[in-house]
Amino acid sequence: MTANSKDGDLRERARRVIPNGMYGHESTARLPEGYPQFFASGEGARIRDVDGAEYIDWMCAYGPNLLGYGQPDVLAAVEAQQRRGDTLTGPGPVMVELAEAMVDMVSHADWAMFCKNGGDATSMAMVTARAHRGRRKILVGTGAYHGASPWNTPVKVGVTEEDRAHLIQFEEGDLDSLADAARRAGDDFAGLFVTPYRMRTFMDQTEPDAEFARGARRICDEAGALLIVDDVRSGLRVARDCSWETVGVRPDLSCWGKVIGNGQPISALLGADIAREAAGKIFVTGSFWFSAAPMAGALETLRIVRETDCLERLTAIGEALRAGLAAQSEAFGFGLRQTGPAALPMVLFEDDPDFRLGYAWCAAALRAGAYLSPYHNMFSNAAMTEADVTRTLEATGAAFEELRRTRESLLPPPQLAPRA
């Protein structure tokens, strides 16, 4: 953004009152130059920055936009509940209704608890696993992202060794590595975190591995530890159930967030009866955890997921984008790696070790009206249409053409984020 733009002005004002002007995963500090930091509005599949530029948004607010920004039925449910009451001295009836709906939808779930962010849900899962048998050791995949609390943040500034004293890492997808981690945990093995689709920034994604999933289930059963699926990123985007149900394995606990309220601030921990007593003993809470309006939005979102073909449509949209990009990259002489499920597309360039091609391509596509990420998995949503894919491919085609002309002069992007 230029210095005399509204975005530039807001950045300057923000730097005076917010550390670094922005923080967290939505900071544009590591995105290509020209990416806007501040947005004015969103509708359906599109977002508009404060300077009026419009983009087809393939980041979907980093996941929460499942049905489209401002989906009318969800907004109506939220607004109706706000008129009745939102944050009150106790929860509304909608809390029970939402718990019933989630338990009905998710095969392994016998109970539900609600919070605000995915990191809340994973932290609740960790504490529940420790409370289950009074054990301490938690197994986590190397580089897996489970939130930004001291025990799991990928940036360790301000974090002590004691915050992570009882974490044991293993290589996700590698049963030998997992078995070794379980042996090291010994009789203190409380719980195992897994991600159904390994999604790390700057790295290819993977699909669920049935053999690994069955092995993880067996290792937890033999040790009396709880198996936890972190479905915050992929839950309800690829299945109307826990993502590991697609390979026939049920966890004891699962963590949900992002899409369950179509942008409303709500997340959930779901559990089987084996973990019910432990979950009832822990103390977790928040002033806004029991607010009724986000729960009403989530209840309506779940209804739409159950009763419509929205998941099939957003998958088809992702597949159409993937096919178009594959054809374009071949035509322009570039190699692309497109990994993971089509509803959560990850696009990286072959022979691009410092990501200069990916950065330049995404920057050019942005200028042509498509908001893509050079290092993070993206998301399709059910508001996207074939016309949106066509328009996106026009932007990416122009970006490939520009990249072909300028590839020899490209500089590497500055200060790449660590691979996490």
Automatic annotation (TrEMBL):
Keyword field: Pyridoxal phosphate
Protein name: Glutamate-1-semialdehyde 2,1-aminomutase
Upper taxonomic lineage: Bacteria, Pseudomonadati, Pseudomonadota, Alphaproteobacteria, Rhodobacterales
SUPFAM superfamilies on file: PLP-dependent transferases (SSF53383)
Keyword check for Glycoprotein: no
Cofactor: pyridoxal 5'-phosphate
GO terms, molecular function: pyridoxal phosphate binding; transaminase activity
Family: Belongs to the class-III pyridoxal-phosphate-dependent aminotransferase family.
This protein's record includes keyword Transport: no
